[in-house]
Amino acid sequence: MTATPSRSDSPYPGLQPYTEAQRDYFFGRDGSKRVIAANLLTTRLTVLYGPSGAGKSSLLRAGVAPVLREHRRTAVVVFSNWSSPGFVDELKNECAGLLENPSSPALLQLPLDDLLDRIASERNGRVLLILDQFEEYLLYHGESEGAGFEAELARSVNREDVDANVLFALREDWLSKLDRFSKRIPVLLRNRIRLAHLDTAGAEDAIRKPVEVYNSRAPSAGPIEIEDGLVRAVVEQSQSQIADPAAGGTAGADTGIRAPLLQLMMSRVWEEEARGGSRLLRLQTLERL
User: What is the pTM of this model?
Assistant: First the structure.
């Protein structure tokens, strides 16, 4: 019996970031994954920034978070719902979920730094707080509106008695907007990591290796195959000159492969082949789209 791709179990997420549940299909960022995880484990505050389309959210959720969870006595929270009016309570609920009795209403009344301290004490370990898409916090919440939360967040970073490390992840064109934290957090930009767009080798891994994982989960069935021409075309079409903010937005200073565009093309090809019952991911299908 041979297998055909199913539209519902595509190893490519399209325009949506990879989730932690999809971590087995996430490839192309091994080096960055190790560097970011090491920094978060050892440094009070890490600022991860990069151009739009570099794949920061996928890397953090499907790459970094699973690596961190493998470490003993570490508790990991990834949060990004900054557009919600109740984001403070939602963030604290996510954190409180790490406690033995997370449903206590009193937990939401605790300042964030005290809540993180309680979690670290109860678990006898370190809390690692990943604040993804942080530019959305800066966009939706003005400095006066967010003053209370920002004070709690700053104390979470600054208090040496709280065993918690924090990561801000944001688009590089918003990096300067972090200046509003500079008075509260002296170490604000001391530990920065820039995530560039995918290179060609990483992009090819992101295309080919998810198919290998998919095939390994159905070893008795015929494999799904992928044409070399399709791989080359997807890499080429998802690569473009990227504007350089330091050069006033002019193109040419940074080139790379836009991960969401790559994933969108592969998910569309997968869906089309699945619709036709094909076990081969073909260049002609991409050209027809």
Answer: 0.91
